[in-house]
Amino acid sequence: MAIPAPDQTEQDRRILTEATVNAATQLGLTNSRLAEVIGVSDSTVSRMKRGRYHLDPGAKEWELSLLLVRLFRSLGAICAGDGAVMRQWMASHNRDLRGVPEEAIRRVDGLVEVVDYLDAHRAVA
């Protein structure tokens, strides 16, 4: 008897949730900072990490999580996947961004600006 495939939407929700948690961990973001970035509560982040909550494709958290994962992937490509270098970059002042990336991503416009900055530098690299 064949096992039915999981609903694609539920699978997508699980995959993006896991990718978001992984990106936050690799970037050195605390639960509170991740909650701020994607617009959810600290307790929701805890449930995400335990696999008891999956992001909602119809909510702002989905779009912000996609941006965070994109940031992680772009920075990872630039830093050759070195987590320590990535965390240092996130915590250091950046002249072009006029601030610390980890602080900037707390705002939606800051997250978009950091992603655009990394995408532009990734294209050059």
Automatic annotation (TrEMBL):
Signal peptide: none
Record GO terms (molecular function): DNA binding
Ranges of residues in domain Antitoxin Xre/MbcA/ParS-like toxin-binding: 81-122
Domain Antitoxin Xre-like helix-turn-helix: from-to ranges: 12-70
Superkingdom of the source species: Bacteria
Protein name: Helix-turn-helix
